[in-house]
Amino acid sequence: MSYNMNSSISLLHYVHCPFCIRVRMAFDFAQIPYQSIVVPYNDEKTPLDLCGVKMLPIVKTEKDAMNESLDIIQHYCNNKIDQPSAERLAEVTALTDKLGKSIHNLAMPYFIWTPEFDDDSRKYFQDKKEKKRGPFKELMKKKDEFVLELTPQLEILEKDLTPFYKSSNLALEDIMIAAHLWALFIVPEFQFSPKIYQYLMDVKKITGFEYHKDYME
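Above: the chain's sequence. Below: its structure in token form.
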């Protein structure tokens, strides 16, 4: 873990956000010190003032601010993490987009009860997400349906783990994939296959990532 309150680099992020998680993992792996700033989900002003859009992660220094997770990783970690080809990047982006649809339906109703959210940010998040996905209570009732959708996707992924994604070494692709899969740890009774669970634990160990770091100090 690379948290350092004296660092000139500040990472503004949501704890649950997979795009934020990938930057945290990349920074931890590359041993880039940074200040961790968890932004309340209902805080629209901070990201708008910095980058003109309500979107995290944002990396802020004394000179400028940058968003877009892959741009951040490319800028700060380019020589420290194996980078995919353009074709492989498109492949993994499509994979995580597909995984994310079912994962978010499963996890979003539970995100709001973590320490990241207070009453105001919980209501903001729920109101916003329910407009797109429907009532969280209904998503929870459809849990088995979403698991059935996700299972074959995970089975395909598992075949490509050797032990990392189509590789014997950890690369950016693994950080992208693991960052999305991490949300499933919050879903009650969800169980990873032994191989995917071990994959996630290997990514965690190698990167030094700790999901709940912001609430452990």
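Residues 86-207 form a domain with the Glutathione S-transferase Yfyf (Class Pi); Chain A, domain 2 fold (CATH 1.20.1050.10).
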